[in-house]
Write a structure and sequence with these properties.
binds heme C; alpha+beta; five-stranded mixed beta sheet; single chain; 7 helices; Immunoglobulin-like
Length: about 210
């Protein structure tokens, strides 16, 4: 996962003020990310999508899935037999921590295609932890930046996806992310920060509400 500077700062601040337990925790989450990406050669992501959003249409949205749900799936879901035979107890514990962490982050995902952002706008509640996911559908590298959100320029290689962890601004408003080297420069991805979004079911943190989005 790609952390931008601000997010890293938040992470450091969190580590400084808390105990060794937090360090062990982030270690576990990191190992869980590994498991999620690689288990049995294809990773959970091979079926549940890069960030557990269920966007491949194979396995469902599982961000924030409980330990019980994950264990039940590994043991009982036929499509996941390949995982059951490969995964070790410690790897289950790690992947549970990682998926739990994903559940606390609101995913804002956009695909960049022919200089356009699809979708071009997504909403989030103020101060909400976000995982901003940018997929580059072209074959050439693209560079993105957002002064509004305090994101320094970052590149996404052709056909790749990058995710940034950040916190939504405290103030309501529309915050723009732009592409520096797309053919057209007048398109933006807008993050609409509004208290209304806290109330909407768009925050799909609850298990069992899956979608093919
Ligand atoms: C080969 C494809 C595949 C892989 C790999 C895979 N899953 Fe699944 N998973 C599925 C499918 C398909 C379902 C849905 C089955 C159903 O609804 O009957 C599912 C369901 C689940 C569910 C239950 C979701 C719900 O809404 O009830 C959880 C939790 C889950 N998987 C977690 C994982 C984790 C964690 C990993 C990696 C360690 C993983 N899966 C790897 C295909 C996969």
């Amino acid at each position: 996962m790609y952390y931008l500077r601000a997010a890293r700062w938040i992470l450091c601040a969190a580590l400084m003020t808390s105990s060794l337990a937090a360090i062990a925790d982030s270690d576990l989450i990191e190992r869980g990310e590994q498991v999620f990406n690689t288990i049995a050669g294809l990773g959970c992501k091979g079926c549940h999508g890069d960030f557990a959003e269920g966007d491949l249409g194979v396995g469902p949205y599982i961000r924030g899935a409980s330990e019980g749900a994950i264990r039940a799936a590994i043991n009982g879901i036929g499509a996941m037999t390949i995982v059951k035979s490969a995964i070790k107890e410690q790897e289950i514990e790690a992947v549970v921590a990682y998926i739990g962490k994903l559940g606390t982050l609101k995913p804002l995902r956009t695909l960049v295609k022919r200089s356009r952002f699809i979708p071009a706008e997504l909403g989030v509640a103020p101060a909400k932890p976000i995982q901003l996911i940018v997929k580059n559908s072209s074959v050439t590298e693209r560079t993105f930046v957002s002064e509004d959100l305090g994101i320094e320029p970052f590149s996404v290689a052709g056909r790749k996806t990058v995710s940034l962890l950040l916190r939504a601004p405290d103030k309501e408003g529309v915050y723009k992310l732009s592409c520096q080297n797309c053919k057209r420069k007048d398109n933006f991805f807008s993050v609409n920060v509004s208290n209304d979004h806290g109330k909407m079911k768009g925050d799909r943190q609850v298990m069992g509400i899956s979608s093919g989005m």
